[in-house]
Write a structure and sequence with these properties.
The complex is a heterodimer of chains A (111) and B (145). Helices cover 67% and strands 11% of the residues of chain A. Chain A starts with a helix and ends with a helix. Chain A is rod-shaped and about 85 Å long. Chain A has a domain at 3-70: Orthogonal Bundle (Arc Repressor Mutant, subunit A). The model of chain A has no long low-confidence stretch (mean pLDDT 85). The longest helix of chain A is centred in the last third of the chain and has 42 residues, at 69-110. Chain A has 111 residues and is mainly alpha-helical. By secondary structure, chain B is α+β, with helices and mostly antiparallel strands. Chain B has a single domain (16-143), classed as 2-Layer Sandwich (Alpha-D-Glucose-1,6-Bisphosphate, Chain A, domain 4), CATH 3.30.530.20. In chain B, 20% of the residues lie in helices and 37% in strands. Chain B has three helices and seven strands; from the N terminus they run βααββββββα. The longest helix of chain B has 16 residues, at 128-143. The chains are: A mainly alpha (111), B alpha+beta (145).
Chain lengths: 111, 145
């Protein structure tokens, strides 16, 4: 499964991503919006960064986080995969039915 | 301290998703899998209603997630068109996107082309995060299933 989709399976991370969509923010800035600890927010940001959903840059001692829109675009490939998998299932099911029908027909001929 | 986030030039929400599959079977056999609820359940999900034009449907994807829409056009052995959206999603509401499945003869079998139009995925689209949210929830449900 796509790392980006996994990262977004957590509601707090979705809210964080929303917060940094248009504005760069520091960890403490982000943490002030939530009832969870700062280390917990740092952990969430790490997951988002690993999934390439946020960018990080340093400015002096501060680390600034911002959304990486290309990461969201990559999610589109997940929906794409959903349909690819569905059509693969369709192929397997239709061809299995065809095979069973041919087998049944050949049995009838042998009788 | 605010800096513009990177942009992707082309609005992705105007590009359809395309998926294609070749099946070793005549079109009529494939078509049956697009309109027969028992057969639909074997590759996509459990449908609430039998597909017919104008009919609203729901389809269970995984244990809890439901996509809903309406059958727009059904042409036997040719195509099926239905709207598609996630239940309870303000971002990809029921009926907000369109899926077209077209069947053509190809190489002694059938070529199936699926086209999904109207997905809000452009990075500057206000719905983009919402769609991510929707996918996120879908993943949660699949992973717990």
């Amino acid at each position: 499964m796509d790392a980006a989709v996994r990262a977004l399976a957590e509601p707090t991370r979705r809210e964080i991503l929303d917060l940094v969509r248009h504005t760069e923010r520091t960890v403490s800035d982000i943490a002030s919006e939530f009832d969870v600890s700062r280390p917990a927010i740092s952990q969430h940001l790490r997951v988002l960064a690993d999934a390439e959903l946020v960018n990080v840059r340093s400015e002096g001692t501060r680390r600034l986080y911002s959304a990486r829109p290309e990461g969201l675009v990559e999610l589109r490939s997940w929906m794409d995969q959903f349909w690819n998998d569905a059509l693969s299932n369709l192929k397997v099911e239709v061809e299995r039915e065809q095979w069973n029908e041919r087998k049944a027909a050949s049995k009838r001929r042998k009788k | 301290m605010s800096q513009p986030t990177p942009r992707v030039d082309e609005p992705l929400d105007q590009q359809p998703l395309l998926s294609e599959q070749w099946i070793r079977a005549p079109r009529s056999a494939v078509f049956d899998f697009l309109v027969n609820p028992v057969k639909l359940a074997r590759w996509l999900g459990e449908f609430t209603d039998t597909p017919e034009v104008g009919q609203d449907y729901g389809v269970a994807i995984g244990p809890d997630h439901v996509a809903r829409g309406r059958f727009v056009s059904i042409e036997p052995n040719e195509h099926v068109v239905f709207t598609w959206g996630w239940e309870h999603s303000p971002h990809v509401p029921v009926g907000s996107t369109t899926v077209t499945i077209t069947l053509t003869d190809h190489d002694g079998g059938t070529s199936v082309l699926l086209r999904h139009d109207g997905l809000p995925m452009g990075p500057e689209d206000e719905h983009a995060v919402g769609w991510a949210e929707c996918l996120g929830r879908l993943v949660e449900q699949w992973e717990t299933s």
